[in-house]
Specification:
about 160 residues, elongated, about 45% helix, mainly alpha
Length: about 160
């Protein structure tokens, strides 16, 4: 595992500056913009999450077609997390601890599933820029201007 700060992209260095004067990678790959295709294996909850998440990331202008794997991981983790929490809630107030055959208590296995998915979600949130801290590290710049011909007919008055 690599430690330390995550490196800035070449575009971020150009926008913000390069105080360390290290060479900027001119050959950095630029993924194609736009939403990736939704994988067919997602559950209903996963598909709903995919639609919401893709919309949010497009609005933030941080989505690329190559993000399919991390998006699918997030959607699967969220789907599993929701299913585990619903299973725990279905047992009732004492759903965290179950009673075994001999009368002894044991932790509901769904608690482990929920905890593992929470950890995976936390990692995905950081990668996708979905938390406040992760967004603070992003630098997407101003929205790209589109020349759709409307400027000929409309102007801002103010």
């Amino acid at each position: 595992m690599i430690t330390g700060r995550k490196p800035k992209t070449a575009e971020q260095k150009r926008r913000v500056g390069n105080p360390g004067k290290r060479p900027i990678n001119g050959n950095e790959p630029e993924p194609g913009p736009g939403p990736p295709p939704m994988p067919g294996h997602l559950t209903e909850v996963g598909r709903e999450t995919w639609a919401w998440l893709v919309g949010e990331l497009e609005e933030m202008r941080v989505l690329a077609r190559c993000d399919v794997a991390i998006l699918a991981m997030y959607c699967n983790a969220w789907s599993d997390y929701v299913a585990a929490r619903e299973e725990i809630a279905s047992v009732g107030v004492g759903g965290f601890v179950l009673t075994g055959g001999a009368g002894g208590g044991y932790i509901n296995p769904m608690m482990n599933v929920a905890a593992m998915r929470e950890k995976q979600l936390h990692q995905c949130v950081g990668e996708l820029g979905l938390s406040g801290v992760a967004r603070a590290r992003l630098n997407v710049g101003p929205p790209a201007k589109t020349d759709d011909g409307k400027d000929k007919f409309f102007r801002v008055v103010g």
